Amino acid sequence: MNKSAVETAPRGLALPVGGMVVYVLLIILSIAGIGVSAYLLWGYTTPGATLACGGSHGCETVKNSAYASLFGIPMPVYGLVIYLGLLALLIAQNHPASVERNLSPYIGLAIFGASLVGVLFSAYLTYLELYVILAICYWCVASAVIMSGIFVGSMFNLRYVNQYFSFEG
Question: E strand or H helix at 131, and its extent?
């Protein structure tokens, strides 16, 4: 473990400036994903609610399709779970206890893995919109773009975390 990077940083701030920029962007994207998923969930579960979709009816078409839920659970719930999970992992990654116990590389790997699952699932849902449902929900696209940003950011995050910590413990 690069002790000087940890010892010279303020409590809990264990990444270099570039790593902190990526870290903050990942937190912002996670919060944005929570907001989009919460809005979609409101639209899915509120009787008579119509999602604002830029003048198209794509959101309503997607919302009313057979693919709007999985195992009886509305799709936005899955989005909320993964975005909340990513936010929790991001906070844990830079928590002083994680830094002291050298858990940050493992948490960084979990962030990468969760974002990989999220981006693959988003790609599948986008495929369904384009080729099966034949309608585009702009909010769903926004969520896919956010998850793609988190995935790319998680690769940089993993690089920074592994640069300053080791997997050896």
Answer: none
Q: Tens of pLDDT along 23-42? A: 999 999 999 999 999 999 99
Closest Cα partner for 166 from 100, 102, 90? 102
Within 8 A by CB and 6+ apart from 42, the residues are: 49
pTM: 0.85
- Average pLDDT, integer, range 98-105: 80
Q: Would you state the pLDDT for residue 61?
A: 93
- By CB atoms closer than 10 A (0-12, 13-18, 19+), residue 67 is middle
Contact yes or no for 142/58 (Cβ under 8 A): no
The vertex-83 CA angle with 135 and 31, nearest 5°, equals: 95
pLDDT of residue 100: 75
Q: Where are the domains of the chain?
A: 14-164
Is a pLDDT exceeding 90 seen at residue 102?
no
Among residues 105, 83, 91, 92, which one has the least CA distance to residue 157? 105
Q: What separation in angstroms does the CA of 67 have from each of 8, 123, 127, 135? A: 51, 14, 12, 12
Q: What is the CATH number of domain 14-164?
A: 1.20.1440.130
